[in-house]
Amino acid sequence: MTAQPNSTTTDGKFADMEKDTVDVHAKQHMTTDYGIKISDPDHWLRTVSDKNTGPSLLEDQIAREKIMRFDHERIPERVVHARGTGAFGHFKLFESAEDVTTAGVLTDTSRTTPLFLRFSTVQGSKGSADTVRDVRGFAIKMYTSEGNWDIVGNNIPVFFIQDAIKFPDFVHSVKPEPHNEVPQGQSAHNNFWDFVYMHSESTHMNYWQMSDRAIPRSYRMMQGFGVNTYSLVNKEGKRHFVKFHFTPELGVHSLVWDEALKICGQDPDFHRKDLISAIEAGQFPKWKFGLQLIPEEKLDDFEFDPLDATKVWPEELVPIRYIGELELNRNVDEFFPQTEQAAFCTSHIVPGIDFSNDPLLQGRNFSYFDTQISRLGANWEELPVNRPVCPYMSLVNRDGAQRHRITKGTVNYWPNRFEANPPASQAEGGFTSYPEKQTGIKARALSEKFAEHYNQAQTFYNSLSEIEKMHLAKAFSFELDHCDDPLVYERMTERIGAVSLELAQQVAQNVGGKSPEKLLRPNHGQKAKGLSQLEYMPEKPTIATRRIAILIGDGFDHSSYIAMKKALEAQNAFVFTIGAQRKGVVAESGETVVPDHFFNGMRSTLFDATFVPGGKHVTALAKNGVAKFWITESFAHLKAIAGVNEAVSFIAKQIDMEEVKVAKPGSSVAESYGVVTGHGDADALLNVKEVGPESKGLAEQFIWHVSRHRNWQRELDGLADQV
Ligand code: HDD
To answer: Which residues catalyse the reaction (predicted)?
Structure first.
């Protein structure tokens, strides 16, 4: 069992789950589920004679129980977001929001609220790969003192549809096609793009989904958004509309597409393992928590309808107020009961928080509760991961399959002659809905502002950096290239022209279809804050938790190896030594190092950066195809690369581009396109004092470039156009 680092969470949730926890290492005999000790779990009871094994006996209650339990191990996977993983943690409030809400979790700064967070992809099934191009789910269950509060959000702030009644159409279109169940973990197929064309309301979300946001480097490096509009209500009964934001401490970073595709095969659990290992190492991921607030009376003051989930609230108009922090600090003990059985409901809110008339939220409030009953049964909220930590009891809600709770007493209805299990007044903490005034006629319609579908898609596109725009064009092209129905890709290339002419022309050039000659509608030229993910670099440069490979073979220079390893580990990077074999690799000076992996067991795609120490080992590396391709591929994937002394010419040869300048023998350190090379004494080259853009030392510059995540200039200058 993996050791759990000390969790800083001081709460009752773990104590609560302890009641249902057993330990296979507790030196307890194996029993049947009804409690008798088992003497032989390996043989079915059967008739045997000296020569023959006879038929197995149905009488064997032990064998039948074992097989029958196995036959029923699976439950239906989630209809969307089936692939995911989660962890426990807590929420801390720094600033009370009592001016806008009475919710204890958002007003009491002395509290630490325990929580569970599940990340997911949307399209693929439970066993699909982590790094597919897809929206990521960001679902939080806060076990507050007033009941569970679920925020069932995504890493993208808008959604594909405006009205919940469209959800089954949308999901059917993106999931594998019905006739052949293809493709898995991809939206790159005719039906999805047909849907997007048919629903211009999907345009805005479609641009986010084609951006690098949909191929995150890590769950720990993406934003979370509540997406829907909720309400907060204060003690004077005043209502504000609210959107919830989570901004990661490590910044927002993505893989490059070629890398994401390869990791799907090389390590389908890449994101799962990344989260688990960071928590195990005590490098707890953190997000700042913020609110965007619109007072009720200002709801109509915007060009767009703030209750439309296909629109963001531009930060220039509605700034984010950061008031708290979310931290994940404990891995689950067992996946099935604590992650597969975790179940969220957008309708789970606590006093002080309320819904809005966001038509998507209204439908979701019905759907989630319903799906949990189908997936987990009527008593799904009794499961340890789902139940609240505060006292809870209803004398009316009872029975149903798998009921665990035993409710004592002679009455099961309210009111009753004993006044047993009475409701609570508002003063006693009872939930009361915001008394919103309602007028209108019944109609299948949305308010007028919902009809505008392109403005914010254009603002999003205009706000992206040049490199993000290049990636967007490649993503649209990749996806539409996978559509083989000309009607689908020709219509779509034309539709892109409603947002950007240059993008539509590039995509049409790549995948066919009519290249539009003018924009279908004028570009309003507006940009907004917070849309380009490059705005979200960490406040202080960091390489904490970055996976860095050091390549070695027999004859490597031990002093530069060890000095760089120490320098990187001092910055909390995860350093891995990759060698010709996973047994002693001998240094020039005689020391032996046992690598973490051998070359063929790993690929450069699974690391953020690579260092090659000096030494005679470069002769062997130069003959090793995996080691050579490692450098070529790392360069193509825009990753920082460093090498000293003999390694400099080895690196230069694999990159083989005159634009990339490396240190000449006799000179000390050179940096070019994030490739940092140097000649000289290891101590001098690898000493780290200050890390920043002006740093001079080799290790300092390497660390700085790793902290920048990727060297975009390589791609902008056409040196890495295969990605
Ligand atoms: Fe949903 C799961 C996020 C619209 C119906 N959704 C689900 C999960 C996330 C989201 C993160 C996984 C929860 C988990 O980890 O267990 N969904 C969203 C967001 C939406 C959204 C951000 C738009 C604002 N969803 C949406 C609509 C409907 C649903 C409009 C139905 C009308 N979603 C479901 C569901 C799922 C689900 C079918 C499948 C598994 C589950 O609920 O628990 O009910």
So the answer is: 81, 154
